[in-house]
Specification:
- With 238 residues, this protein is of the alpha+beta class.
- The protein contains five helices and eight strands.
- Strand 1 and strand 2 form a beta hairpin.
Amino acid sequence: MQKIYQYILNGKGIGLLFLLLLSLIMAIYFTIAIRSGGKSFIPFAQEAADQILPIKIEKGVVVTPAETVKTFPIKFNKEGTISYPLVIDTTQDTLDTTTLKPGIYLSKTSLYTVKDNEVRVMKLQDNLEIPQGDYTEFFQSVLNWFSLFVGLFGALILFAVYLLLGVFYAWCSYIVSAVFSKKYDFSQRMRLGILSMQTVYLVFIPLNMVIATPWFLFFICVILLQGLVIYRLPKQEN
């Protein structure tokens, strides 16, 4: 603990290396969660492909399936579905958007997406043919690339977010240190805030796998940990 106290008081920088480490850990955590959840979704995606395909578009007009209405509810697990259907209606060139419920719709000439009373219409163009078949490997490849995207860009986004949170907790430490009549410079407060936030995160990650924890509890734990550390640190004059 003395090494941690010395780092907070006399270390260099504001703790960006610890912040980067936290960002990488959280990015890996989210990547693993996405891959785990995505693998369970692949069978349902293949089931949807089996029921909806084949689809053939010639010069912006759906020719296969012809004069057909197909509806497939999106499934996320075996126990239930959500009310967000995929609908193919090639009996009509265009659909009456005022009657459409949230979902994805394909008419002879257009693709419709309906969400929160907002309707987007995309006119079909050119030629396209998607045959029926086993797309399991394709879905797995998409999942792998998406997971890689989350891991790379997610770490950068998390780093920026955690840096802002570090500044926030550094400012919160002014209130905490005032209780103990102690003063520190802002670099020391940043190192304290980032280390406290990282420590609580590492506890909450496995805890969240067992029970959902509210965000305000995390905030309280960081503040309490800051208070404990400040209580044990010697006074420092600016």
